[in-house]
Each structure stands twice: as structure tokens, then as C-alpha cells.
Q: What sequence folds into this?
């Protein structure tokens, strides 16, 4: 009942209520757009595209777009070009001094970086949109009769304009949710797209279990749900786990100086077990498209090419997941190294009069933090890799259908868990600021501040 009372308290805070309503409204707009088929294409003849996107690599792409990819929708590219552009800009920030300078300029620099990311998103869309349109007929099996206006220049020009505009509009929706709504808008768009395919995937898997063909029946469905909840709990542990480093702050004396003694305030510096989030999986997922393309370029006459196409087109295959897991571990170390500034953390501690007991401020503190991060990143990266490849394990052990298996780990589950926790934390902060119990903490309700 306390949880229900907390939900009621959410609607008592006008600003929070307005933000939640706006967020739901913009998410509905995005989901509505995912059902609008590109002009000139017969929606009743998209069976080949939908069948091709039901599994494999295309199934993962379709899941991230909430089915828009298989619907030949105006949002078929989804928000992924923006994600790709963000990753590229982050990586370029390591080597390009101009971007490094912008990163240090605070809000004004971040505004310029956002503009660069937007323009790069448009450039990526201009490459992806023609490729998507060109692949509809030969690669995805859509009959020529489905193209009502043909596949000439008019179709391509209008299609590219609409797909690019759709991606830009989705990007705008995400930014508006972040600014005026609740939660991270871009992440919420991806999460909603993933959740949109969940009911259909579960129903299809349940139907195959109950068809009387010896697939386990209701008992196997219950076992799958138990395993699913367990892996969700494991994902929550991975997202929330931190290593607390004790920090001693010097006490300011009457003369205005600092006195480092045991009577100073003692706090903790939290270092996340998985500081890189889902980015290593996204990086690795992007790389996993390469072996299949290389195999296809070798041609069907090459045994190596055939082997690469066979092994790396199946996201539940052995070699795919072995390489996938190793890449995740490598990218976890790489991304953690560029996103966790131990030098800056040590400098900030020194300026604020803080120090780690037994460690000298400055260089020694930076080296100590770097050592701790290296130690906790190894188990964190292995845990992340295990969750990422768990869908393949569940397919082999329990014969789960591919679409439903994708929700047992990998990018999809970690995105859902991470975004849900982040959104709940933001709602929680609103409630606590108004002296209500938070969603993530129980206790006696307090009087609201008007």
C-alpha cells in the first residue's frame, strides 16, 4: 500500500505530473510514427521484410526501432544514427584538441558538441537511408508490386528525405523529453521500442510451448519467467553495484585553514562496477556486423566467406558469441578508461580538502583510483559479457524462440533496466524534495512542502 500511496503523491506535485504527462505524450507520438509506412509502399505486402527481420542481426535492429524497421516506417532508421553519431563524437574527443577544449567549457561547450552531433547524425542518415531503400526489394524480398509508384528517382529522393526527417524528428522528441519531461529522452525512445516488441515475442513463444508438440507446456513457460526475473535482478545488481572508497575531508579550523585529523567528515567515493554502462555492448554489436559483410564480399565460392556468413549471421551461434563476449570485455576496459577521469577525481578531492586515508593527495591518489578501477572493471566486464551472451545460452538450453530470447540479456535488457532505474531516481528526487517518500525508499510519509 505504501507504493500505491507513493504513486498518488506523484500526482500531487504539479511540475512532476506535467513532466510525466508530456513524456507519455511524446512517446505515444513516436510509437504512432513507427506504424506509418513510407509513401509509395503497400503495407499489405511487407511480409518478406517482416519475416526477414524476425530473427538474426536484422531482428536486433528491428527491436531497437520498435518494429519500425520491419514496417518500412518513416522512423525505420530509429534513433540509432544519433547514437552512432554520439559514439563517434565521444571517440573523436580523445584525439581532436578542439573537442577536448569544448568538453572543458561547461554548458556552452556541451551545446556546441550537441550541434556537431546533430549534423553528424544527418550525414549518417544520408548514407543509411539510400542503403535501406535499396535493400527493400532484393535483400528483404519485398515484391515489386509493393512499390506503388515504382522504384525510380522520385521514390528514392522522397524516401531519403522522409527517413532523414523521421530520424531528426525522433532526435527532437528525445531532446524534448530530456528538457521538458522526465528521464533521458533518447534512452526512453530506445526502451519503448524494445518494450513494444516484448508482448508479441512472449505470445509467440508461449504459443509454441502450448501447441501440444512436446515443447514443455505451461511448466516451461513458468520456468522461463523465473529465469527471466533472475536475470533482471542480476542486471539490476550490475547497474547499481559500486565500490565505496573511504574519503576523509579536512575540518576547517577557526583560523580559516584546514586541519587533517580524524574529526573531519568521513564520506565515500562510489566507483561503479560497470562504469561504462551498455556502451561496450553497443560498440561490440556494431563490430559484429563486419565479419558477415566481409564473408559476403568474399563470395559464395569461398569456403571462408561461407563460414563467416553462416557463423556471424546467427546471433545465437557459438563463434558469434565467443567473439562478441571478448569484444565486450575489451571495450569495457577501453570505454572505462576514457570516461572515468581518475586524474580529475584526484584533483577535485585535493581542492576540496579531501584525501583517501593512507594515500597522499595528488598523483598517488590518481594512481590508487586507477588501480581500483582496473581491479573492479575485470569482474564487471566479465559479468557484462555473460549477461550479453545469455540469450544464446537460453536458446541452447531451453529451446526458447529467438525473439523472446533477446529479452534474457544483451543490450535490450540492460537498456530497459538502466533506463528504468535512471527514471525512477529522477522521480525519486522530486518526491524527496517535496518531503514525500521516494519510489526507491520506504518510510513514514512526511508533510508536503507547498
A:
Amino acid at each position: 500500500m505504501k507504493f500505491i500511496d507513493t504513486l498518488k503523491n506523484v500526482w500531487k506535485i504539479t511540475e512532476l505530473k506535467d513532466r510525466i504527462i508530456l513524456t507519455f505524450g511524446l512517446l505515444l507520438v513516436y510509437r504512432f510514427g513507427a506504424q506509418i509506412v513510407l509513401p509509395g509502399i503497400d503495407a499489405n505486402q511487407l511480409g518478406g521484410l517482416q519475416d526477414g527481420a524476425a530473427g538474426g542481426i536484422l531482428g536486433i535492429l528491428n527491436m531497437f526501432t520498435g518494429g519500425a524497421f520491419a514496417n518500412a516506417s518513416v522512423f525505420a532508421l530509429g534513433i540509432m544514427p544519433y547514437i552512432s553519431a554520439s559514439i563517434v563524437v565521444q571517440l573523436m574527443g580523445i584525439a581532436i584538441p578542439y573537442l577536448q577544449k569544448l568538453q572543458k567549457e561547461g554548458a556552452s561547450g556541451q551545446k556546441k558538441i550537441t550541434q556537431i552531433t546533430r549534423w553528424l547524425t544527418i550525414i549518417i542518415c544520408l548514407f543509411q537511408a539510400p542503403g535501406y531503400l535499396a535493400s527493400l526489394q532484393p535483400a528483404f524480398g519485398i515484391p515489386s508490386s509493393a512499390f506503388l509508384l515504382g522504384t525510380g528517382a522520385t521514390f528514392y529522393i522522397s524516401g531519403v528525405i522522409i527517413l532523414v526527417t523521421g530520424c531528426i524528428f525522433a532526435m527532437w522528441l528525445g531532446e524534448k523529453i530530456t528538457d521538458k519531461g522526465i528521464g533521458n529522452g533518447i534512452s526512453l525512445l530506445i526502451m519503448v521500442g524494445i518494450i513494444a516488441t516484448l508482448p508479441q515475442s512472449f505470445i509467440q513463444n508461449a504459443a509454441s510451448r502450448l501447441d501440444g508438440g512436446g515443447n514443455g507446456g505451461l511448466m516451461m513457460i513458468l520456468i522461463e519467467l523465473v529465469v527471466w526475473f533472475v536475470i533482471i535482478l542480476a542486471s539490476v545488481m550490475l547497474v547499481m553495484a559500486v565500490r565505496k572508497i573511504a574519503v576523509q575531508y579536512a575540518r576547517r579550523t577557526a583560523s580559516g585553514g584546514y586541519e587533517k585529523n580524524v574529526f573531519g567528515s568521513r564520506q565515500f567515493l562510489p566507483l561503479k562496477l560497470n562504469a561504462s554502462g551498455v556502451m561496450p555492448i553497443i560498440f561490440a554489436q556494431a563490430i559484429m556486423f563486419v565479419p558477415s559483410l566481409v564473408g559476403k564480399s568474399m563470395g559464395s565460392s569461398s569456403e571462408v566467406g561461407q563460414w563467416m556468413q553462416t557463423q556471424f549471421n546467427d546471433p545465437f551461434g557459438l563463434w558469434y558469441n565467443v567473439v562478441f563476449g571478448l569484444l565486450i570485455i575489451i571495450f569495457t576496459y577501453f570505454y572505462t578508461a576514457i570516461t572515468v577521469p581518475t586524474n580529475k577525481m584526484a584533483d577535485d578531492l585535493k581542492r576540496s580538502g579531501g584525501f583517501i586515508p593512507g594515500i597522499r593527495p595528488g598523483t598517488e591518489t590518481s594512481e590508487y583510483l586507477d588501480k581500483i578501477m582496473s581491479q573492479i572493471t575485470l569482474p564487471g566486464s566479465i559479468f557484462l559479457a555473460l549477461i550479453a551472451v545469455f540469450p544464446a545460452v537460453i536458446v541452447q538450453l531451453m529451446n526458447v524462440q529467438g525473439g523472446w530470447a533477446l529479452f534474457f540479456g544483451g543490450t535490450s535488457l540492460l537498456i530497459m533496466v538502466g533506463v528504468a532505474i535512471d527514471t525512477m531516481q529522477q522521480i525519486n528526487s522530486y518526491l524527496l524534495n517535496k518531503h514525500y517518500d521516494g519510489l526507491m525508499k520506504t518510510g513514514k510519509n512526511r508533510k508536503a512542502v507547498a
